[in-house]
Design brief:
Elements lengths: L5 E5 L5 H10 L3 E2 L21 H6 L10 E5 L9 H8 L4 E5 L13
Parallel strand pairs: 1-3, 1-4, 2-3
Length: about 110
């Protein structure tokens, strides 16, 4: 069974959706249809509270041809526990952090 080996972490409106969509198109990368499962970050109140089995089911369609399996949840950036929980889940996983300054990711005068 495939499990995520990278995580996109970033603030809202900082390009995480664009990064998710671009990576999902790559033939060697699997991204689940549900972009922000927010499984990790037990200190966050806004988590949907899905079970580990339901979380892992998001990656069941990842074939062995996929070299990378990832997910993207903006909430991990705001959690004090998510990074450690991800490391405990998969010690070899990479965390890609997408940062931005308010207003600069979408262009001048937008958003």
């Amino acid at each position: 069974m495939a499990i995520p080996n990278f995580f996109i972490v970033g603030g809202s409106k900082c390009g995480t959706t664009t990064m998710y969509e671009l990576l999902a198109r790559h033939p060697e990368i699997f991204m689940p249809r549900w972009k922000e499962p927010h499984f990790f970050g037990s200190d966050l109140r806004s988590r949907p509270g899905i079970s580990k089995d339901d979380y892992l089911a998001l990656f069941a369609r990842a074939s062995r041809k996929k070299r990378r399996v990832g997910e993207a949840s903006t909430g991990y950036l705001y959690s004090k526990r998510a990074a450690a929980e991800i490391k405990e889940f998969n010690a070899f996983a990479r965390q890609l952090v997408r940062g931005c300054t308010s207003g600069t990711s979408r262009g001048p005068g937008v958003g």
